[in-house]
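ugh ok fine here u go
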Amino acid sequence: MAVPTKNIPAPDLVPVRRALLSVFDKTGLIDFARALAAAGVELVSTGGTAKAIAEAGLAVRDVSELTGFPEIMDGRVKTLHPSVHGALLGIRDDAEHAKAMRDHRIEPIDLVVSNLYPFEEVRHSGAGYASIVENIDIGGPAMIRASAKNHAYVAIVTDPADYAPVVNALEMNLGSLSLDFRKMLAAKAFARTATYDAAISGWFAEALQIEHPTWRAFGGHLDQVMRYGENPHQNAGFYLSGDKRPGVATAKQLQGKQLSYNNINDTDAAFELVGEFDPARSAAIAIIKHANPCGVAEGETLKAAYAKALACDPVSAFGGIVAMNRILDAEAAREIVKTFTEVIIAPNATDEAAAIVAAKKNLRLLVTGGLPDPRAAGTMVKSVAGGLLAQSRDNAVVDDLELKVVTKRAPTPAELADLKFAFRVAKHVKSNAIVYAKDGATVGIGAGQMSRVDSSRIAARKALDAAEAADLAEPLTKGSVVASDAFFPFADGLLSAIEAGATAVIQPGGSMRDEDVIAAADEHGIAMVFTGVRHFRH
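structure:
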């Protein structure tokens, strides 16, 4: 049953005579407080905020003067009092509310300035449990929500970026704030507390290892509004969750125009893929187009790895994303800029490499300071009509799997190295995925087909095209290995790979027809390895 409504119309303009300021982030605080004081607004404050305002030479009342009660329990209890919340929640045009405020000597508060303890930052800093709990703000969200609910009379400011607009609005309206402006501030305030609570509930679920909490919330802070989404008729925004995983969301953009929706999606896919390759072992390059790799390779240097990756599908690489697992150097930069590229993402870049890329003014260069950990846990979310699908990140790594040789012939050491390489890549290819690899490089990739045999044939066809472009006598799939992200349901997909020249296969296994597939491999002298782990990616 709904709470009854009194239907008292909200006034358009509300004069701001008294403001309560209680902030953790003091960015811009003193200039804002000074502007409010100059506009004749009485300042009320708490703790460290009051001290900062007073030290700036401004008159400020401590909130304890309103409540008649001191701050206690290390500041945990200071604004949780009827004299504060009555001042925020009272409907001033309601006779009963007005009488209650007079009877209890509650002075109305017209403006609240509050931002919260830095829970998100502390959560991701590696702090201990007790420290994280201590940074759960209670009084702040309570004041913010109370003010936002009563936006008919109270303005709530939760973001230092809104200080200047508030001052401008007060000047335009001779010391008052309009209803539309108060509504805008209230909407932002509720979004802030919702995101804050989402971070807290998400941390608790993670800390207590609750895989599927009964209620689940996700939140983020707007980083940028984009020109459009996947297509020009769609609008889009990029929100940051606060997760410090190295990648496109945490990267520093050194140069180039603003990233688009598709750029961000593809760059994330590229960097997550290249994160599978240990930079201490070898350099690695991944070239991505439409969230699928069109070439991946390892090499002694980034330049060598890039050449091998580009050779896999030089046509598709045009306008792609290039990711690497080492610091971008000048040699690699010179090669990459020869082909039109949308984004380069790397852990870092030398000054010389950055200068080379800078000659291409629209080419974006992102540096992340590190690589994503492919073994790290995490939650992936996808929207569907009416709901959200949430699952743990696919953090299975082929080096950790117990590989089982199921054919009469075991793979050679060289084949096994390429099988592991191919399976790393297949993890990041849209299903159904088929990846041919040779000498630490992809030589044919088939992605996103309804039939696995079609993916196998497309990959082989691309290898033929690449061979023609490079003027090779035969495609590099001859003598290659092949990886499948899921089991072969029939032998036809395997036979297609054998026809393309593959000599060894890695796949999860688990089909009802595994024996038929194994028999086909044995008949053709092919080595086959089962991983027991599937890598579907939709």
